[in-house]
Amino acid sequence: MEQLKPSAVNSSPLTPLTFLDRAATVYGDVPSVVYNDTTFTWSQTRRRCLQLASALASLGIGRGHVVSVVAPNIPAMYELHFSVPFAGAVLNNINTRLDARTVSVILRHANSTLVFVDFASRDLVLEALSLFPRQHTHRPTLILITDNTVQEEKTKTSPTVDNFLHTYEGLMSKGDPNFKWVLPNSDWDPMILNYTSGTTSSPKGVVHCHRGAFISALDTLIDWAVPKNPIYLWTLPMFHANGWNLTWGIAALGGTNICVRKFDAGVVYSLIRNHHVTHMCGAPVVLNMLTNSDKRPLEKPVQFITAGAPPPAAVLLRAEEFGFVVGHGYGLTETGGIVVSCAWKGKWNRLPATERARLKARQGVRTVGVTEVDVVGPTGESVKRDGVSVGEIVVKGGCVMLGYLKDPSGTARCFKNGRFYTGDVAVMHEDGYLEIKDRSKEVIISGGENLSSVELESVLYGHPAVNEAAVVARPDEYWGETPCAFVSLKAAIKEKEKLTEKDMIQYCKDNMPHYMVPKTVVFKDELPKTSTGKIQKFVLKQIANNMGSLKHSRI
Protein backbone atom coordinates (compact mmCIF):
# COMPACT_ATOMS: atom_id res chain seq x y z
CA MET A 1 0.00 0.00 0.00
CA GLU A 2 1.14 3.56 -0.73
CA GLN A 3 2.91 5.13 2.24
CA LEU A 4 1.05 8.35 2.99
CA LYS A 5 2.58 11.00 5.19
CA PRO A 6 1.04 13.14 7.92
CA SER A 7 0.23 16.73 7.03
CA ALA A 8 -0.92 19.92 8.72
CA VAL A 9 -4.49 18.73 8.24
CA ASN A 10 -4.16 15.69 10.51
CA SER A 11 -1.19 16.34 12.76
CA SER A 12 -2.26 19.15 15.05
CA PRO A 13 -0.88 18.62 18.55
CA LEU A 14 -2.97 16.68 21.04
CA THR A 15 -3.68 18.71 24.16
CA PRO A 16 -6.40 18.57 26.84
CA LEU A 17 -6.63 22.37 26.69
CA THR A 18 -9.06 22.01 23.77
CA PHE A 19 -11.56 20.43 26.17
CA LEU A 20 -12.36 23.85 27.64
CA ASP A 21 -13.15 25.43 24.27
CA ARG A 22 -15.63 22.65 23.54
CA ALA A 23 -17.14 22.74 27.03
CA ALA A 24 -17.87 26.47 26.68
CA THR A 25 -19.67 25.81 23.39
CA VAL A 26 -21.61 22.69 24.33
CA TYR A 27 -22.13 23.22 28.06
CA GLY A 28 -21.87 27.02 28.25
CA ASP A 29 -24.68 27.48 30.79
CA VAL A 30 -23.85 24.38 32.86
CA PRO A 31 -22.18 25.02 36.26
CA SER A 32 -18.47 24.34 35.89
CA VAL A 33 -17.07 25.26 39.31
CA VAL A 34 -18.90 25.52 42.63
CA TYR A 35 -17.20 26.75 45.78
CA ASN A 36 -19.16 27.83 48.86
CA ASP A 37 -21.55 30.50 47.51
CA THR A 38 -19.64 31.01 44.25
CA THR A 39 -20.73 29.32 41.01
CA PHE A 40 -19.27 29.72 37.52
CA THR A 41 -20.55 28.30 34.24
CA TRP A 42 -18.35 26.76 31.57
CA SER A 43 -18.56 29.88 29.40
CA GLN A 44 -17.50 31.98 32.39
CA THR A 45 -14.65 29.63 33.27
CA ARG A 46 -13.28 29.79 29.73
CA ARG A 47 -13.50 33.58 29.74
CA ARG A 48 -11.70 33.82 33.10
CA CYS A 49 -8.97 31.39 32.02
CA LEU A 50 -8.32 33.33 28.79
CA GLN A 51 -8.20 36.62 30.71
CA LEU A 52 -5.67 35.23 33.14
CA ALA A 53 -3.58 33.70 30.33
CA SER A 54 -3.55 37.09 28.61
CA ALA A 55 -2.45 38.78 31.83
CA LEU A 56 0.35 36.22 32.24
CA ALA A 57 1.52 36.91 28.69
CA SER A 58 1.58 40.64 29.48
CA LEU A 59 4.01 39.85 32.32
CA GLY A 60 6.30 38.14 29.84
CA ILE A 61 5.27 34.60 30.77
CA GLY A 62 5.47 32.24 27.79
CA ARG A 63 7.03 29.10 26.38
CA GLY A 64 9.61 27.49 28.63
CA HIS A 65 8.65 29.40 31.76
CA VAL A 66 7.56 27.49 34.86
CA VAL A 67 4.62 28.88 36.84
CA SER A 68 4.18 27.36 40.30
CA VAL A 69 1.00 27.19 42.35
CA VAL A 70 0.66 26.63 46.09
CA ALA A 71 -3.07 26.32 46.74
CA PRO A 72 -5.79 23.88 47.86
CA ASN A 73 -8.83 22.79 45.84
CA ILE A 74 -10.32 26.21 45.12
CA PRO A 75 -11.57 27.78 41.83
CA ALA A 76 -8.26 29.56 41.20
CA MET A 77 -6.41 26.24 41.39
CA TYR A 78 -8.78 24.74 38.83
CA GLU A 79 -8.54 27.71 36.46
CA LEU A 80 -4.74 27.73 36.56
CA HIS A 81 -4.71 24.24 35.02
CA PHE A 82 -5.89 25.92 31.82
CA SER A 83 -4.58 29.48 32.16
CA VAL A 84 -0.91 28.64 32.66
CA PRO A 85 -0.56 26.31 29.64
CA PHE A 86 -2.89 28.66 27.67
CA ALA A 87 -0.02 31.16 27.97
CA GLY A 88 2.41 28.51 26.73
CA ALA A 89 4.03 28.03 30.14
CA VAL A 90 4.57 24.88 32.23
CA LEU A 91 2.32 24.35 35.26
CA ASN A 92 3.98 23.30 38.52
CA ASN A 93 1.61 22.51 41.41
CA ILE A 94 3.27 22.28 44.83
CA ASN A 95 2.01 20.26 47.76
CA THR A 96 0.65 22.69 50.38
CA ARG A 97 1.75 20.48 53.28
CA LEU A 98 5.43 20.48 52.44
CA ASP A 99 7.85 22.28 54.74
CA ALA A 100 9.48 25.57 53.71
CA ARG A 101 12.85 23.92 53.04
CA THR A 102 11.36 21.48 50.53
CA VAL A 103 9.28 24.20 48.84
CA SER A 104 12.43 26.29 48.55
CA VAL A 105 14.29 23.40 46.92
CA ILE A 106 11.44 22.84 44.44
CA LEU A 107 11.17 26.52 43.46
CA ARG A 108 14.91 26.69 42.82
CA HIS A 109 15.06 23.34 41.02
CA ALA A 110 12.08 24.27 38.82
CA ASN A 111 13.48 27.79 38.27
CA SER A 112 9.95 29.11 38.76
CA THR A 113 9.28 32.48 37.16
CA LEU A 114 5.98 33.15 38.93
CA VAL A 115 4.25 31.65 41.96
CA PHE A 116 0.53 31.85 42.73
CA VAL A 117 0.13 31.63 46.51
CA ASP A 118 -3.07 30.96 48.43
CA PHE A 119 -3.39 33.26 51.45
CA ALA A 120 -3.14 30.29 53.85
CA SER A 121 0.26 29.35 52.37
CA ARG A 122 1.67 32.89 52.41
CA ASP A 123 4.03 32.31 55.34
CA LEU A 124 5.19 29.01 53.88
CA VAL A 125 6.21 30.52 50.55
CA LEU A 126 7.79 33.65 52.02
CA GLU A 127 9.88 31.49 54.34
CA ALA A 128 10.82 29.27 51.39
CA LEU A 129 12.06 32.32 49.48
CA SER A 130 14.05 33.49 52.51
CA LEU A 131 15.97 30.20 52.31
CA PHE A 132 17.24 30.93 48.80
CA PRO A 133 21.06 31.21 48.83
CA ARG A 134 22.35 34.76 48.48
CA GLN A 135 24.08 33.90 45.23
CA HIS A 136 20.76 32.72 43.76
CA THR A 137 19.80 35.94 41.98
CA HIS A 138 16.61 34.71 40.30
CA ARG A 139 13.58 35.01 42.57
CA PRO A 140 10.06 34.35 41.35
CA THR A 141 7.32 36.98 41.29
CA LEU A 142 4.44 36.28 43.70
CA ILE A 143 0.70 36.57 43.06
CA LEU A 144 -1.62 36.34 46.10
CA ILE A 145 -4.83 34.33 45.93
CA THR A 146 -7.30 35.86 48.40
CA ASP A 147 -10.51 34.19 49.53
CA ASN A 148 -13.42 36.31 50.70
CA THR A 149 -15.56 33.26 51.43
CA VAL A 150 -13.54 32.16 54.46
CA GLN A 151 -12.03 33.95 57.42
CA GLU A 152 -8.34 34.40 56.83
CA GLU A 153 -6.16 32.70 59.39
CA LYS A 154 -3.63 34.73 61.35
CA THR A 155 -0.22 34.57 59.72
CA LYS A 156 3.24 35.71 60.66
CA THR A 157 3.32 38.16 57.77
CA SER A 158 1.56 41.48 57.39
CA PRO A 159 -1.99 41.29 56.04
CA THR A 160 -0.91 43.65 53.24
CA VAL A 161 0.16 42.39 49.82
CA ASP A 162 3.50 44.20 49.88
CA ASN A 163 5.39 41.04 48.93
CA PHE A 164 3.08 40.32 46.02
CA LEU A 165 2.91 41.94 42.59
CA HIS A 166 -0.87 41.46 42.27
CA THR A 167 -3.79 39.63 43.72
CA TYR A 168 -5.21 36.81 41.61
CA GLU A 169 -8.41 38.64 40.69
CA GLY A 170 -6.53 41.89 40.22
CA LEU A 171 -4.17 40.28 37.71
CA MET A 172 -7.04 38.58 35.88
CA SER A 173 -8.88 41.89 35.49
CA LYS A 174 -5.98 43.19 33.38
CA GLY A 175 -6.34 40.39 30.81
CA ASP A 176 -8.12 40.15 27.46
CA PRO A 177 -11.01 37.62 27.40
CA ASN A 178 -10.51 37.25 23.63
CA PHE A 179 -6.88 36.18 24.02
CA LYS A 180 -5.75 33.60 21.46
CA TRP A 181 -4.24 30.91 23.59
CA VAL A 182 -0.88 29.39 22.71
CA LEU A 183 -1.16 26.05 20.94
CA PRO A 184 1.85 23.81 21.61
CA ASN A 185 4.27 23.37 18.74
CA SER A 186 4.24 19.64 19.31
CA ASP A 187 2.51 16.94 21.34
CA TRP A 188 5.80 16.57 23.15
CA ASP A 189 6.04 20.15 24.42
CA PRO A 190 6.28 20.13 28.24
CA MET A 191 3.00 21.10 29.90
CA ILE A 192 3.32 19.92 33.50
CA LEU A 193 6.06 19.70 36.11
CA ASN A 194 5.00 17.64 39.12
CA TYR A 195 7.15 16.64 42.05
CA THR A 196 6.88 13.19 43.58
CA SER A 197 5.25 12.98 46.99
CA GLY A 198 8.40 12.16 48.90
CA THR A 199 6.95 9.19 50.81
CA THR A 200 10.23 7.30 50.47
CA SER A 201 12.80 9.89 49.35
CA SER A 202 13.39 13.46 48.24
CA PRO A 203 10.87 14.63 45.62
CA LYS A 204 11.88 14.44 41.95
CA GLY A 205 10.65 16.73 39.17
CA VAL A 206 8.45 14.79 36.76
CA VAL A 207 7.87 16.35 33.33
CA HIS A 208 4.75 15.51 31.31
CA CYS A 209 3.83 16.70 27.84
CA HIS A 210 0.50 17.78 26.29
CA ARG A 211 0.12 14.41 24.59
CA GLY A 212 0.52 12.47 27.82
CA ALA A 213 -2.01 14.63 29.66
CA PHE A 214 -4.49 14.26 26.78
CA ILE A 215 -4.19 10.47 26.70
CA SER A 216 -4.30 10.08 30.48
CA ALA A 217 -7.36 12.32 30.93
CA LEU A 218 -9.45 10.50 28.33
CA ASP A 219 -8.15 7.12 29.47
CA THR A 220 -9.43 7.73 33.02
CA LEU A 221 -12.86 8.82 31.75
CA ILE A 222 -13.16 5.71 29.59
CA ASP A 223 -11.96 3.30 32.24
CA TRP A 224 -14.28 4.81 34.85
CA ALA A 225 -17.15 5.00 32.32
CA VAL A 226 -17.92 8.58 33.41
CA PRO A 227 -21.17 9.88 31.81
CA LYS A 228 -21.83 13.42 30.59
CA ASN A 229 -22.32 16.12 33.21
CA PRO A 230 -20.89 14.28 36.24
CA ILE A 231 -20.93 16.08 39.60
CA TYR A 232 -17.37 15.67 40.79
CA LEU A 233 -16.30 16.44 44.37
CA TRP A 234 -12.64 17.40 44.75
CA THR A 235 -11.46 15.42 47.78
CA LEU A 236 -8.34 14.43 45.82
CA PRO A 237 -5.86 17.34 45.86
CA MET A 238 -5.48 18.91 42.43
CA PHE A 239 -1.78 19.33 43.15
CA HIS A 240 -1.42 15.56 43.26
CA ALA A 241 -0.71 14.52 39.65
CA ASN A 242 -3.18 17.22 38.56
CA GLY A 243 -5.99 15.35 40.26
CA TRP A 244 -5.16 12.29 38.15
CA ASN A 245 -5.79 14.54 35.12
CA LEU A 246 -9.47 14.91 35.98
CA THR A 247 -8.88 18.67 36.16
CA TRP A 248 -9.05 18.52 32.36
CA GLY A 249 -11.18 15.38 32.11
CA ILE A 250 -14.22 16.88 33.85
CA ALA A 251 -14.20 19.69 31.27
CA ALA A 252 -14.37 17.14 28.45
CA LEU A 253 -17.75 15.96 29.74
CA GLY A 254 -19.17 19.29 30.89
CA GLY A 255 -19.19 18.16 34.50
CA THR A 256 -19.43 20.27 37.63
CA ASN A 257 -16.38 20.63 39.87
CA ILE A 258 -17.35 20.94 43.55
CA CYS A 259 -14.35 22.53 45.26
CA VAL A 260 -13.56 22.18 48.94
CA ARG A 261 -10.67 23.92 50.65
CA LYS A 262 -10.02 21.33 53.34
CA PHE A 263 -11.08 17.73 53.86
CA ASP A 264 -13.59 17.23 56.64
CA ALA A 265 -15.85 14.17 56.72
CA GLY A 266 -18.89 16.14 57.87
CA VAL A 267 -18.42 18.80 55.19
CA VAL A 268 -17.90 16.15 52.53
CA TYR A 269 -21.14 14.36 53.41
CA SER A 270 -23.02 17.69 53.32
CA LEU A 271 -21.60 18.48 49.88
CA ILE A 272 -22.53 15.03 48.60
CA ARG A 273 -26.15 15.53 49.69
CA ASN A 274 -26.53 19.18 48.72
CA HIS A 275 -24.96 18.89 45.26
CA HIS A 276 -26.00 15.32 44.41
CA VAL A 277 -22.37 14.32 43.92
CA THR A 278 -21.86 11.38 41.56
CA HIS A 279 -18.07 10.92 41.50
CA MET A 280 -15.10 11.26 43.88
CA CYS A 281 -11.49 10.13 44.12
CA GLY A 282 -9.03 9.73 46.94
CA ALA A 283 -6.47 7.61 48.71
CA PRO A 284 -7.67 4.70 50.88
CA VAL A 285 -7.16 6.90 53.96
CA VAL A 286 -9.94 9.19 52.69
CA LEU A 287 -12.31 6.24 52.43
CA ASN A 288 -11.20 5.15 55.86
CA MET A 289 -11.99 8.55 57.39
CA LEU A 290 -15.36 8.74 55.66
CA THR A 291 -16.47 5.30 56.77
CA ASN A 292 -15.16 5.76 60.31
CA SER A 293 -17.35 8.82 60.81
CA ASP A 294 -20.71 8.56 62.51
CA LYS A 295 -22.63 9.65 59.39
CA ARG A 296 -25.49 7.60 58.02
CA PRO A 297 -25.10 5.64 54.75
CA LEU A 298 -25.46 7.56 51.49
CA GLU A 299 -28.90 8.13 50.03
CA LYS A 300 -27.61 7.47 46.50
CA PRO A 301 -24.50 5.54 45.42
CA VAL A 302 -21.36 7.59 44.75
CA GLN A 303 -18.68 6.31 42.38
CA PHE A 304 -15.30 6.44 44.10
CA ILE A 305 -11.88 5.62 42.67
CA THR A 306 -9.21 4.92 45.24
CA ALA A 307 -5.51 4.73 44.46
CA GLY A 308 -2.19 5.92 45.81
CA ALA A 309 -1.74 2.96 48.15
CA PRO A 310 -3.06 -0.61 48.23
CA PRO A 311 -6.46 -0.43 49.98
CA PRO A 312 -7.07 -2.98 52.73
CA ALA A 313 -10.00 -5.28 51.97
CA ALA A 314 -11.61 -4.33 55.29
CA VAL A 315 -11.70 -0.65 54.27
CA LEU A 316 -13.23 -1.50 50.88
CA LEU A 317 -15.89 -3.61 52.54
CA ARG A 318 -16.92 -0.83 54.93
CA ALA A 319 -16.96 1.74 52.11
CA GLU A 320 -19.35 -0.29 50.02
CA GLU A 321 -21.61 -0.82 53.03
CA PHE A 322 -21.81 2.99 53.25
CA GLY A 323 -22.93 3.25 49.63
CA PHE A 324 -19.66 4.08 47.87
CA VAL A 325 -19.17 2.13 44.64
CA VAL A 326 -15.43 1.71 44.84
CA GLY A 327 -13.13 1.24 41.90
CA HIS A 328 -9.46 0.56 42.53
CA GLY A 329 -6.67 1.97 40.41
CA TYR A 330 -2.90 2.21 40.37
CA GLY A 331 -0.60 4.86 39.00
CA LEU A 332 2.33 7.08 39.86
CA THR A 333 3.29 10.71 39.43
CA GLU A 334 5.52 9.42 36.61
CA THR A 335 2.51 7.95 34.76
CA GLY A 336 0.38 11.08 35.16
CA GLY A 337 -2.58 9.15 36.48
CA ILE A 338 -4.10 5.70 36.74
CA VAL A 339 -2.62 3.11 34.37
CA VAL A 340 -3.93 -0.07 36.03
CA SER A 341 -7.45 -0.66 37.31
CA CYS A 342 -9.30 -3.57 38.84
CA ALA A 343 -11.68 -3.98 35.90
CA TRP A 344 -14.73 -5.58 37.48
CA LYS A 345 -16.27 -8.79 36.13
CA GLY A 346 -20.02 -9.28 36.44
CA LYS A 347 -19.65 -12.82 37.72
CA TRP A 348 -17.81 -11.50 40.78
CA ASN A 349 -21.01 -9.87 42.02
CA ARG A 350 -22.30 -13.32 42.99
CA LEU A 351 -19.43 -13.88 45.40
CA PRO A 352 -19.61 -13.23 49.17
CA ALA A 353 -18.84 -9.66 50.23
CA THR A 354 -15.50 -10.54 51.81
CA GLU A 355 -14.34 -12.29 48.63
CA ARG A 356 -15.47 -9.33 46.49
CA ALA A 357 -13.45 -7.01 48.71
CA ARG A 358 -10.39 -9.26 48.42
CA LEU A 359 -10.61 -9.22 44.63
CA LYS A 360 -11.15 -5.48 44.53
CA ALA A 361 -8.03 -4.93 46.63
CA ARG A 362 -5.98 -6.15 43.67
CA GLN A 363 -4.63 -3.46 41.37
CA GLY A 364 -5.88 -5.20 38.21
CA VAL A 365 -5.07 -4.84 34.51
CA ARG A 366 -3.81 -2.06 32.25
CA THR A 367 -6.25 0.65 31.24
CA VAL A 368 -7.22 0.95 27.57
CA GLY A 369 -4.85 3.85 26.85
CA VAL A 370 -1.75 2.04 28.07
CA THR A 371 0.36 -0.10 25.75
CA GLU A 372 1.81 -2.54 28.26
CA VAL A 373 1.83 -3.32 31.98
CA ASP A 374 3.70 -6.37 33.23
CA VAL A 375 5.42 -7.83 36.27
CA VAL A 376 8.97 -8.84 35.47
CA GLY A 377 11.95 -10.51 37.09
CA PRO A 378 15.58 -9.31 37.30
CA THR A 379 16.32 -10.05 33.63
CA GLY A 380 13.11 -8.50 32.31
CA GLU A 381 11.20 -11.75 31.86
CA SER A 382 7.53 -11.98 32.89
CA VAL A 383 7.00 -13.71 36.23
CA LYS A 384 4.78 -16.77 36.46
CA ARG A 385 1.06 -16.05 36.72
CA ASP A 386 0.69 -17.92 39.97
CA GLY A 387 -0.07 -15.12 42.47
CA VAL A 388 3.15 -16.00 44.31
CA SER A 389 6.15 -15.16 42.13
CA VAL A 390 7.15 -11.56 42.76
CA GLY A 391 8.65 -9.06 40.35
CA GLU A 392 8.67 -5.36 39.51
CA ILE A 393 5.82 -3.58 37.74
CA VAL A 394 6.81 -2.09 34.37
CA VAL A 395 4.73 0.26 32.22
CA LYS A 396 4.85 1.37 28.61
CA GLY A 397 2.56 3.95 27.00
CA GLY A 398 1.96 7.55 25.99
CA CYS A 399 1.01 8.51 29.56
CA VAL A 400 4.52 7.92 30.90
CA MET A 401 6.56 11.03 31.73
CA LEU A 402 9.15 12.56 29.42
CA GLY A 403 11.63 12.13 32.27
CA TYR A 404 12.95 13.69 35.47
CA LEU A 405 13.90 17.35 35.24
CA LYS A 406 17.68 17.91 35.26
CA ASP A 407 18.23 14.25 36.20
CA PRO A 408 19.24 12.17 33.15
CA SER A 409 20.82 9.47 35.31
CA GLY A 410 17.63 9.12 37.38
CA THR A 411 15.59 8.88 34.18
CA ALA A 412 17.96 6.27 32.75
CA ARG A 413 17.71 4.15 35.90
CA CYS A 414 13.94 3.71 35.51
CA PHE A 415 13.75 3.78 31.68
CA LYS A 416 15.18 0.41 30.68
CA ASN A 417 14.50 -1.89 27.74
CA GLY A 418 11.78 0.43 26.44
CA ARG A 419 9.83 0.28 29.71
CA PHE A 420 9.34 2.38 32.82
CA TYR A 421 10.40 0.46 35.93
CA THR A 422 8.12 1.61 38.75
CA GLY A 423 9.94 0.23 41.80
CA ASP A 424 6.74 -1.47 42.96
CA VAL A 425 6.84 -5.17 43.79
CA ALA A 426 3.86 -7.27 42.69
CA VAL A 427 2.61 -10.69 41.68
CA MET A 428 0.57 -11.62 38.64
CA HIS A 429 -2.45 -13.83 39.20
CA GLU A 430 -3.56 -16.58 36.87
CA ASP A 431 -6.35 -14.40 35.44
CA GLY A 432 -3.88 -11.67 34.41
CA TYR A 433 -4.65 -9.29 37.29
CA LEU A 434 -1.64 -7.98 39.16
CA GLU A 435 -1.46 -7.29 42.88
CA ILE A 436 1.07 -5.04 44.60
CA LYS A 437 2.99 -6.61 47.43
CA ASP A 438 5.23 -3.68 48.35
CA ARG A 439 7.53 -0.92 47.23
CA SER A 440 10.91 -2.40 46.43
CA LYS A 441 12.38 -0.14 49.13
CA GLU A 442 9.83 -1.29 51.71
CA VAL A 443 10.16 -5.08 51.55
CA ILE A 444 11.25 -6.32 55.00
CA ILE A 445 13.96 -8.96 54.84
CA SER A 446 13.83 -10.91 58.08
CA GLY A 447 16.05 -13.94 58.54
CA GLY A 448 16.32 -14.27 54.76
CA GLU A 449 12.54 -14.15 54.26
CA ASN A 450 10.99 -11.33 52.22
CA LEU A 451 7.99 -9.97 54.11
CA SER A 452 5.36 -7.75 52.49
CA SER A 453 4.40 -4.77 54.64
CA VAL A 454 1.20 -4.49 52.57
CA GLU A 455 0.09 -7.97 53.60
CA LEU A 456 0.83 -7.27 57.25
CA GLU A 457 -1.06 -3.98 57.12
CA SER A 458 -4.07 -5.70 55.54
CA VAL A 459 -4.28 -8.05 58.53
CA LEU A 460 -3.94 -5.18 61.00
CA TYR A 461 -6.77 -3.28 59.33
CA GLY A 462 -8.97 -6.29 59.97
CA HIS A 463 -8.84 -5.61 63.73
CA PRO A 464 -12.06 -3.79 64.69
CA ALA A 465 -10.18 -1.23 66.79
CA VAL A 466 -7.62 -0.21 64.17
CA ASN A 467 -8.05 3.09 62.35
CA GLU A 468 -4.67 3.29 60.57
CA ALA A 469 -1.78 0.88 60.24
CA ALA A 470 1.67 0.91 58.68
CA VAL A 471 4.50 -1.58 58.93
CA VAL A 472 8.20 -0.82 58.42
CA ALA A 473 11.47 -2.59 59.16
CA ARG A 474 13.18 -2.21 62.53
CA PRO A 475 16.79 -3.31 63.04
CA ASP A 476 16.95 -6.63 64.87
CA GLU A 477 20.01 -8.08 66.55
CA TYR A 478 19.16 -11.66 65.60
CA TRP A 479 17.03 -11.50 62.42
CA GLY A 480 18.68 -8.50 60.76
CA GLU A 481 15.35 -6.66 60.67
CA THR A 482 11.83 -7.45 61.80
CA PRO A 483 8.39 -5.89 61.20
CA CYS A 484 7.52 -2.87 63.34
CA ALA A 485 3.83 -1.92 63.24
CA PHE A 486 2.57 1.62 63.82
CA VAL A 487 -1.12 1.74 64.69
CA SER A 488 -3.72 4.40 65.45
CA LEU A 489 -7.03 3.41 67.01
CA LYS A 490 -10.56 4.52 66.24
CA ALA A 491 -11.74 7.36 68.44
CA ALA A 492 -14.62 5.39 69.94
CA ILE A 493 -12.29 2.52 70.83
CA LYS A 494 -9.77 4.72 72.64
CA GLU A 495 -12.29 5.55 75.33
CA LYS A 496 -13.52 1.99 75.86
CA GLU A 497 -10.49 -0.25 75.50
CA LYS A 498 -6.86 -0.11 76.46
CA LEU A 499 -5.24 -2.26 73.82
CA THR A 500 -1.64 -3.20 74.49
CA GLU A 501 1.25 -4.20 72.29
CA LYS A 502 0.79 -7.75 73.53
CA ASP A 503 -2.87 -7.72 72.42
CA MET A 504 -1.98 -6.64 68.89
CA ILE A 505 0.84 -9.15 68.57
CA GLN A 506 -1.47 -11.93 69.70
CA TYR A 507 -4.07 -10.82 67.14
CA CYS A 508 -1.41 -11.05 64.45
CA LYS A 509 -0.33 -14.49 65.61
CA ASP A 510 -3.93 -15.62 65.30
CA ASN A 511 -4.26 -14.30 61.75
CA MET A 512 -0.91 -14.75 59.98
CA PRO A 513 2.12 -17.08 59.90
CA HIS A 514 4.26 -16.55 62.97
CA TYR A 515 7.38 -15.59 61.00
CA MET A 516 5.47 -12.57 59.65
CA VAL A 517 4.20 -11.31 63.00
CA PRO A 518 5.40 -7.79 63.96
CA LYS A 519 7.82 -7.94 66.86
CA THR A 520 7.11 -4.33 67.81
CA VAL A 521 3.81 -2.41 67.90
CA VAL A 522 3.76 1.35 68.43
CA PHE A 523 0.49 3.16 69.17
CA LYS A 524 0.13 6.72 67.85
CA ASP A 525 -2.76 9.18 67.80
CA GLU A 526 -2.29 9.67 64.06
CA LEU A 527 0.21 8.39 61.51
CA PRO A 528 2.20 10.96 59.51
CA LYS A 529 0.80 11.43 56.00
CA THR A 530 1.34 13.42 52.87
CA SER A 531 -1.46 15.77 51.80
CA THR A 532 -2.71 13.07 49.44
CA GLY A 533 -3.24 10.63 52.28
CA LYS A 534 -0.18 8.46 51.77
CA ILE A 535 1.41 7.39 55.03
CA GLN A 536 4.97 8.71 55.18
CA LYS A 537 6.83 5.50 55.82
CA PHE A 538 10.23 7.17 55.71
CA VAL A 539 9.20 9.11 58.84
CA LEU A 540 8.15 5.88 60.55
CA LYS A 541 11.36 4.15 59.42
CA GLN A 542 13.37 6.87 61.09
CA ILE A 543 11.43 6.38 64.32
CA ALA A 544 11.99 2.62 64.12
CA ASN A 545 15.70 3.11 63.49
CA ASN A 546 15.97 5.50 66.43
CA MET A 547 14.46 2.80 68.67
CA GLY A 548 17.63 0.81 68.07
CA SER A 549 18.09 -2.88 67.35
CA LEU A 550 15.57 -5.21 68.91
CA LYS A 551 17.37 -7.73 71.10
CA HIS A 552 16.58 -11.42 71.70
CA SER A 553 13.55 -11.40 69.43
CA ARG A 554 13.81 -14.98 68.26
CA ILE A 555 10.47 -16.83 68.54
From TrEMBL:
Pfam families listed in its UniProt record: AMP-binding, AMP-binding_C
The name this protein goes by in its record: Putative acyl-activating enzyme 5, peroxisomal
Cellular-component GO terms for this entry: cytosol
Boundaries of every AMP-binding enzyme C-terminal domain copy: 455-534
NCBIfam families given in the database record: PRK08162.1 (NF006020)
AMP-dependent synthetase/ligase domain boundaries: 21-405
UniProt cross-references to InterPro entries, sorted A to Z: AMP-bd_C, AMP-bd_C_sf, AMP-binding_CS, AMP-dep_synth/lig_dom, ANL_N_sf
Keywords: ATP-binding, Ligase, Nucleotide-binding
UniProt family annotation: Belongs to the ATP-dependent AMP-binding enzyme family.
Sample GO molecular function, one term: medium-chain fatty acid-CoA ligase activity
Location of this chain's protein in the cell: Cytoplasm, Cytosol
